[in-house]
Amino acid sequence: MNRSKSKCYVLCQLAGTLSVIVAGMISHMDVVLTAPITFNTALPVAKGEFVLREQLIVNQSGDDPSGANRDRSEIAAVTAMGYGIARRWAVFGVLPYRTIDLDLDSGGQRINRSNSGIGDLTVLARNTAHQKDQTGQTFRIAPFVGVKAPTGKDNASDSLGTLPSSVQVASGSWDLFGGVVLTYQTLDFQIDSQLSYRFNNEANGVEAGDIARLDGSLQYRLWHSEGMGIPDFLYGVIEANLIHQDKNKVAGVEDPDSNGTRLFLSPGIQYVTKRWIAEAVIQLPITQNLNGSALENDYISRISVRFNL
Amino acid sequence: MKKLHYMLFVLILLMPLTPANAEPLSYALQVEGLACPFCAYGIEKKLSSIEGVEDIEVDVKQGEIIVTMAEGATMSEELAREKVKDAGFSLRSMAQRGGSEQ
């Protein structure tokens, strides 16, 4: 590798590790039956039945304190399916198709690294551990566990060499996660809250930091249709996502300019019918307490449809 | 002739109602835990899988589900409870409406 390519390689690797947290935004948490839009719910999937969700996610990061003027954008189409395997058990599979672009200054030039493809498969199981039902309302507690498997391609390259980890569509690692979600639903509103933790493992010399999350959601019914049959509901949604990610490790050494803590406030809207749901949300970073010169998020937008099959 | 008309009139009065005019058998299920339309679909599908179920009407606000049966078909409370549980909800009560169980 000549000197200019070598310099770019170093900078791009730096950009890669600094941006790994951004990749973490496309996470296992966004499963199909999410009554919240950005995380899970404890509401049931009927035994023997399927639910499907397609979600389009735009993740933009461009506030760069490092001086490399990094700009990273990702568009992901995420397919998630849930199945009720028993009364209190549901399983979910999540598979993304990702398109990533990273632009940065290097050696007086503007460099672009880009990539697209199918990402890693995530599967999880959720159990309804506690359920208290009354007329027109329910309260549930549902723990869940899952794994992200290294099914996607994690060693893509371009004319400059192997792409940095933040531009790879897959991580190459087996990552376990777990948590618990609480849901309280009435005819007028719904509150969900989730606590989760993900253990990220090493692959290709890079170990992304573990991720701890606390999420909350309020969905308030603004309108419902009148007339015969099951009515349609329109919800106004406000969610909050507190996400902490430990520093990444590259070749076993902690990267001081990676990750940190972010708090998002996420307003949205949701139209709910018997057979389908249409929804949209934008996640706005309220505060970002990041390590060193880690790349900051501008916003994450999500639009999705869900179906009872 | 007058006598014939009179006899016909009496016969018509004494004729019993035919089964086709009888109100169909239905059940009113009181379900708990149901508070959104998307969840109601699961209950509809589970109850529809019961043999003899012809129609289902869900009132999400009241938590009431009216299950109408085909002629000659019935549904036990035990079976209804199983199906509501399979959908992820709870059956509080079940009452018969109209028709007659055989």
Overview of this structure, please?
The complex is a heterodimer of chains A (309) and B (102). Chain A has 309 residues and is mainly beta. Chain A is 6% helix and 59% strand. In chain A, a hairpin with a 2-residue loop joins strand 6 (130-134) and strand 7. Chain A starts with a helix and ends with a strand. In chain A, 47% of the residues are buried. The model of chain A is unreliable at 1-29 (pLDDT under 50). With 102 residues, chain B is α+β, with helices and mostly antiparallel strands. Chain B has helices at 2-14, 37-48, 77-87, and strands at 26-32, 53-59, 64-69, 90-97. Chain B starts with a helix and ends in a 5-residue tail after the last strand. The mean pLDDT of chain B is 87. At the A-B interface, strand 6 of A face helix 2 and helix 3 of B.
Give the tags.
heterodimer, A: 309 residues, mainly beta, 12-stranded antiparallel β-barrel, 4-stranded antiparallel sheet, 2 helices, 20 strands, 59% strand, B: 102 residues, alpha+beta, 3 helices, 35% helix
Number of strands of chain A: 20
Largest sheet of chain B: 4 strands, antiparallel
What percent of residues of chain B adopt helix (DSSP H or I)? 25-40%
Q: What value does the Rg of chain A take, in angstroms?
A: 20 Å
* Strand residue content of chain B: 25-35%
Compute the separation of the termini of chain B in Å: 43 Å
Structural class of chain B: alpha+beta
Oligomer: heterodimer
